[in-house]
Amino acid sequence: MRHTGAEVVWECLIREGVDVVWAYPGGAALPLFDALGKYPQIHYVLVRHEQAAAHAADGYARATGKVGVCAATSGPGATNLVTGIATAMLDSVPMVAITAQVADSVIGTDAFQEINITGITLPITKHNYLVRESGDLARSLREAFFLARTGRPGPVLVDIPKDILTAPCEFHYPERVSRPGYRPVVRSAPYQVQRAAQVIADAKRPVVLAGHGVHVAKAWEELQRFAERVNAPVVSTLLGLSALSADHPLCLGMAGMHGVAWANLAIQNADLLIAMGMRMDDRFTGSLRHFAPQAKLLHVDIDPAEIGKRVPAAVPMVGDVRFVMEALTAALPELDHREWLSQIDAWRDRHPLTVHAPGPLPPQEVIRALHQATGGEGVVVSDVGQHQMWVAQHYRFRRLNSFFTSGGLGTMGYSLPAALGVQAGHPTDPVWVVVGDGSFQMNLQELATVAQERLPIKIVIMDNGYLGMVRQWQELFHGARYIGTPISGPDFVQLAASYGIPARRVTATADLAAAFAAARDADGPYLLDCKVEQDENVYPMVQPGTSNADFMEDPRGRAKDQ
Amino acid sequence: MRHVLVALVQDEPGMLARMGNLFARRGYNVQSFTAGASELPGLTRITIVVEGSSTALDQIAKQFRKLVGAVKVADVTADTDQLSHEMLLVKVGVTAKTRQEVVSLTELFKARIVDVSTTTLMLEATGEPDKLDKFLEVLRPFGVKEQARTGAVFMGRGAKILNQRPGVASDRKYLAE
């Protein structure tokens, strides 16, 4: 049967199991949207800015493990995707971005809304395609999905000229992808497993480092069994949170610049780090010169380029962490590290997380109220900044793969649009967005999409009138000169109302429980504008260039409660 | 130190830009970059000579290997049993008096005269880059008007072939290939 190129695009997406696409139309993309009328099985979500389409596809992919799809027109439509694509690249998120391009005959002439988007996205995609012939269209899309989801996942962009979208196109979806040289190593060799198992068995103070790779590999059960077999504590990276239930006795939480003290101390005193699907990001390691001085590193990642990139690995292992942990668990006897674990418990007692803000609404209390309202079982999307760190510290994730945030790129404005996709992946659960007043204002136009789709997204604004994390750095490292960080905003409650979204303002800790219950129990979306303490800092904090063992604690001392 | 990467990449649009991006991003100075058809249909053989530290180069080689379309990437820097050859075209200014001297040097270096004018000779030489450097050095007093070098290509001696060797040196110890 004859199709147009545009129809072939949708036919390919259907073969890939795609049922939702976040997109924004435009001139060159017109044929693509016109053909969509024939494919009611694909739910098209009109966002209000292309950046949101990319973040939504990203959120969907993180929540489901499936490839998220976004689409935009040529020129500005395509460039607006860029931040979202880069966010997905840095966090290894499988995504296919489809952009329309000006007609092939005018490419290279600076035609209206022409931009070289394959050139622009070259460093921020796993791969990209400019389709120059109808015959390449289906193969390019097939490869795009294959590359996006296999090996170390990442975004792939397919740029399709308008005349290819309109021209007749033979539809043949290739069964197989032939990319010589592309062979991700999934299973490590048996001798490597034996060698690694021996190193683990010999360790006295092992720590497992759980990264985003555990989520990508869906290796939550394998992680728990492995950690239990080794009897080793599990420290998470920011994106590794919720890889192991916070209730599990071996779960220590997040380490790094704003990591909890006991997790950082565990790493700094460990004799073996077992890194699973993480890349030793600088926010995690702190100063490399001081990082884990007594520890050997057993580094497992599916991407060979991550191993030895920042920290030399004594035992490098390339492979999918799910298979590797399964193999290691099978190769190891039950180990016992009681003393080591009780040492970590002692650190936890000595350096607990504190809430010591003076005002009526400490920001940490907002996160604790969220935890209470959801029982730690919520699906949480956080933006970037102080509130993100407070979520990482104070929300105890009991539900696996329930935390979504922009880690590597640190993209402000991520949370609300990403929640559109996370919600699509969790249609029956409310999705909680925790966002600062600065981040919220970067993509608040998506309130319209939330209302349009009637999504039960609960937005918690940590409203302190500052770009808080930058303000904190100004306070600590720039002589408390708050230049460019005080930020005003609209009345968020009235703003929500104008989109038909119920909202309320919270100004005191005492009101949190009722406010969160109202948000949780509302059928649709809800917005809480939490007027938190303005000058609060995130503690503990490791100053840049120093050891993670030398964290700054809250100078106001230990809080009454923990 | 000087490093040499030899690669087989799929012959498709954008590949050159992807490779260039890898080196540019880390501020690497590429001394030479050559590309040409390999013995395998659809695969281009690339030879890149760069200056830089070993750890940084190792990371670039790994990133190179990750490019979709890179079929084989080998760091051949440490290989001793290999040939590296380059071609040079050089236009030397000559007078009636100096012409014969340049012709003798050309013979001495086993180079060829490929073009003659009343005031110039164009010479073609191939061989190890060091030999070409020396050739240029002895020609310089006569006046090197123009020179073009292809950049070196490398090939191991003996029966071993590139497509059958393991890739990036540091990957060998843990990639079962």
Q: What report would you give on this structure?
A:
- The complex is a heterodimer of chains A (562) and B (177).
- With 562 residues, chain A is α/β, with parallel strands linked by helices.
- Chain A has 3 domains: 2-170, Thiamin diphosphate (ThDP)-binding fold, Pyr/PP domains (Rossmann fold, 3-Layer(aba) Sandwich), CATH 3.40.50; 190-350, TPP-binding domain (Rossmann fold, 3-Layer(aba) Sandwich), CATH 3.40.50.1220; 363-531, 3-Layer(aba) Sandwich (Rossmann fold).
- Chain A contains 23 helices and 20 strands.
- In chain A, strands 3-2-4-5-7-6 form a 6-stranded parallel β-sheet, with helices on both faces.
- The termini of chain A are far apart.
- The mean pLDDT of chain A is 96.
- With 177 residues, chain B is an alpha+beta fold.
- Chain B folds into 2 domains: 2-81 and 157-171, Alpha-Beta Plaits; 83-153, ACT-like. Chain A, domain 2 (Alpha-Beta Plaits).
- Helices cover 25% and strands 38% of the residues of chain B.
- Chain B contains 4 helices and 9 strands; from the N terminus they run E-H-E-E-H-E-E-H-E-E-H-E-E.
- In chain B, strands 5, 6, 7, 8 and 9 form a 5-stranded antiparallel β-sheet that branches. A 4-stranded antiparallel β-sheet of chain B has the order 2-3-1-4, covered by helices on one side.
- In chain B, strand 6 and strand 7 form a beta hairpin.
- The longest helix of chain B has 13 residues, at 54-66.
- Chain B is elongated and about 55 Å long.
- The A-B interface holds A 118-119, 122-123, 126-128, 130, 132, 147, 179-182, 185, 188-189, 192, 303-305, 307-309, 316-318 and B 8, 10, 13-14, 17-18, 21, 25, 58-59, 62-63, 65-66, 68-72, 168, 170-171, 173-176.
